[in-house]
Amino acid sequence: MIELTETNSAAIATEFVRARTRAGSPAMGMVMTLVIVVPEDGAEDAMAVARGASHEHPARVLGVILGDARGAGVVNAQVGIGSGWAGETGLIRLKGEVVKHAESVVLPLLLPDSPVAIWWPSDPPDDPAADPLGALAQRRITDAAGATRGKGRAIQKQCSFYIKGNTDLAWTRITPWRALLAAALDQHHLKVISASVTAERISPSADLLAAWLGGRLRVDVERKSSRGPGITQVVMETKEGPISISRTDGRLATYASPGHPDRPIALKRRDTAELLSEELRRLDEDDIYATTARRLARQLASA
Amino acid sequence: MSYTNPLRDPQDRRLPQIAGPCGLVLFGVTGDLSRKKVMPAIYDLANRGLLPPGFSLVGFARRDWADQDFAQIVHDSVKAYARTEFREEVWHQLAEGFRFVPGNFDDDDAFRHLHRTIEELDQVRGTDGNHAFYLAIPPGFFGDVVGQLKEHGLADPGPGSWRRVVVEKPFGHDLESARELNTVLADVFPSGSIFRIDHYLGKETVQNILAMRFANAMFEPIWNANYVDHVQITMAEDVGIGGRDGYYDGIGAPRDVIQNHLLQLMSLVAMEEPTSFDAESLRIEKQKVLSSVVLPRRLDLSTARGQYAAGWAGGEKVIGFLEEEGIKQSSTTETFAAVTLNIASRRWAGVPFYLRTGKRLGRRVTEVAVVFKRAPHQPFSATSTEELTQNALVIRVQPDEGMTVRFGSKVPGTAMEIRDVNMDFAYGGSFTESSPEAYERLILDMLLGDPPLFPQHEEVELSWKILDPILDHWAAKGKPEAYGSGTWGPQSADAMLSRDGRVWRRP
């Protein structure tokens, strides 16, 4: 890691090239730029997660720490290329006036042509697409479950400000559940008459899962509370009996369906690096999320 | 009555396709193939959440084992060879479905036992009568096993369920034996239920050949005889036959590698655009290529064969093929083979395809090199282009998967001097470093009943039709030429290309 103090984007860009040349190859196999907007105390973890995710998607990872906006602008940076993976990292600390113009620092550092993703590990702007940094990206990743303020309403905000390119890790978290539920109906060609989702009281993922099921199955989905962790049970009632997936320990679930014996199935809660990897795998619009988010926003607004 | 799953949507590409309820019966539990490839792949699939709840694995072998002993074997192999990390909950999900049936292939009791086991699994694990039989055994036993499966009613699926059989190469040792083998299988299973595994076709880079050719605009226009001078397809191994003596003697490099891997690679490189990416359309195009292959008139001038001799390979002193355990001094088995093939089509007329494979060569590498013609006119002086050779596009299949484009560039300085440079795309650099193993992909496709990546018997027979005349020609020629271990093959291989005014690329 090279420390650059009171620097600017050009110097940071030069340092990236220099670091590559020093490592022996100026060739770049990177497929995207990933911008992370993070407070100082979460920066180290977030960068580690991004490095984990960028094993699958080699990226230029730019951590942006927005400091106090008062006073004269200062840009400090740590620049390095990873040993053992194809990406690059830059951790950029902004202080003073420049905090309000963070996009001017990031723009020159975006890789040519390749897509840009941005991730807010904790508190995202209310409308990510309207944020100056968010506007640089095709993919804006928020995490309603990581919100430190107004936890209960975080997902509602994200859903109501949904626009093409936005996504939330609360949605990513339920992919394995959705896959199992869809597989269940691949096997049982049954009409679902009602459904329920049981989870911790505050669980953006459970809310999204219920909204998705309700929208796809056109039934009312009851949202029940349990002590967690995360989502603990999903039941789809059919004429022949319930199809249910229950998971009490956050790891191993039991799958029960009409006419079949109960079977264990691994359904582990995934770590953030895995979620981020999944999110970066496709950068086009997620229509299913769009529909689900709009539906959830409507439901919450009318509740 | 058609049913649309309301939870599925073609737009919803996050959702993986999970195999329906099913089980796998593995014959030949103790072999390398089972332990190093099949079992780890099953675990990895489960770990990625792609196997159905209740998936069951039945082992069948001539051992006096109980279910737990079999589970232990799987456990050890998963620990040693699985690609993804070992997780207790995944293991727990799988472990309840392990069963073991001891017995010989001619033992009626054992197959009755197998029948009961499968019925029991349908009851307690909900496998719904869907079972695949994986024959990880020498082809000599295929007949016995499928015969038994038929006799004991194991090959007949009940209504609404399926039975499939999976076999590995070699698919025969010549056209006749390939046909016999197919008759044996086709006698019991319909052709749509026979899955022949050519693990090369499950490799990401091989599938990427199709993506590269047909999803891009910049390669296809030059992918023809107007621009391509010739194509070299190489599969080299740095190891000897170590341990496979019984199998290898009498088979040799052409039957082991060219008939399946190299001809499949060639057909993907040479084929016309399929109407879609489904099994049927791909097969039609591959068959067209294979059936338009023409052998050169003089096989003595256009082929080469060799046998590795003792020597030094990569800093180690190694013995020659004839000194390997179990190999007769008089063995004429080829450990190196190179052939020239022409494809009689408008696209490829006049473009030779050189295929070579061998053991104990310089290094382990598989690649397809498309070598282009020289620019028809050089505005530069002869001296400035002295170091410029032909442009090439190299698809590296393994290791170090990726693509290299080789072209000329000006050397910095005041004089105009042009030299070859490489532009590299490393698959591992731009995508996941742990792409799924070929076997994961193939086993999942088989359980889903999705066959695009499996060669059909027509392709197998066409491949033998290409190879048989060469094999006959060689059989009449006695001993293959010896080549030093650790080199790039015998003199005759170099001579074969230099007759055409070309050289082998050093891979």
Structural notes for this entry:
Chain A contains nine helices and 14 strands. Chain A has an eight-stranded mixed β-sheet, sandwiched between helices. Chain A is α/β, with parallel strands linked by helices and 303 residues long. The mean pLDDT of chain A is 89. In chain A, helix 2 (40-53) packs across helix 8, helix 4 (154-160) packs across helix 9 (287-302) and helix 7 (204-217) crosses helix 9. Chain A has helices at 9-23, 40-53, 102-106, 154-160, 169-172, 175-187, 204-217, 272-281, 287-302; strands at 2-4, 32-37, 59-66, 74-81, 88-95, 116-119, 139-142, 166-168, 192-199, 221-225, 231-238, 241-246, 252-256, 263-266. Chain A folds into two domains: 2-170; 175-266, 3-Layer(aba) Sandwich (Glutaredoxin), CATH 3.40.30. With 507 residues, chain B is of the alpha/beta class. Chain B folds into two domains: 23-168, NAD(P)-binding Rossmann-like Domain (Rossmann fold, 3-Layer(aba) Sandwich), CATH 3.40.50; 201-429 and 464-498, Dihydrodipicolinate Reductase, domain 2 (2-Layer Sandwich), CATH 3.30.360.10. Chain B is 34% helix and 21% strand. Chain B is built from 15 helices and 18 strands. Chain B has helices spanning 32-47, 67-81, 88-95, 108-124, 142-151, 175-188, 204-215, 245-248, 252-270, 279-291, 299-302, 427-430, 438-448, 457-475, 491-498; strands spanning 23-27, 56-61, 98-102, 131-135, 163-168, 194-197, 228-236, 293-294, 303-309, 311-313, 316-318, 336-343, 353-358, 365-372, 392-398, 402-410, 418-426, 481-484. The mean pLDDT of chain B is 89. At the A-B interface, helix 6, helix 7 and strand 14 of A face helix 3, strand 17 and helix 12 of B.
SSE layout:
The complex is a heterodimer of chains A (303) and B (507).
Chain A: E1 2-4, H1 9-23, E2 32-37, H2 40-53, E3 59-66, E4 74-81, E5 88-95, H3 102-106, E6 116-119, E7 139-142, H4 154-160, E8 166-168, H5 169-172, H6 175-187, E9 192-199, H7 204-217, E10 221-225, E11 231-238, E12 241-246, E13 252-256, E14 263-266, H8 272-281, H9 287-302
Parallel strand pairs in A: 2-3, 2-6, 3-5, 6-7, 7-8, 9-10
Antiparallel strand pairs in A: 1-4, 4-5, 9-11, 11-12, 12-13, 13-14
Helix pairs in contact in A: 2-8, 4-9, 7-9
Chain B: E1 23-27, H1 32-47, E2 56-61, H2 67-81, H3 88-95, E3 98-102, H4 108-124, E4 131-135, H5 142-151, E5 163-168, H6 175-188, E6 194-197, H7 204-215, E7 228-236, H8 245-248, H9 252-270, H10 279-291, E8 293-294, H11 299-302, E9 303-309, E10 311-313, E11 316-318, E12 336-343, E13 353-358, E14 365-372, E15 392-398, E16 402-410, E17 418-426, H12 427-430, H13 438-448, H14 457-475, E18 481-484, H15 491-498
Parallel strand pairs in B: 1-2, 1-4, 2-3, 4-5, 5-6, 7-13, 9-18
Antiparallel strand pairs in B: 7-14, 8-12, 9-12, 10-11, 12-13, 14-15, 15-16, 16-17
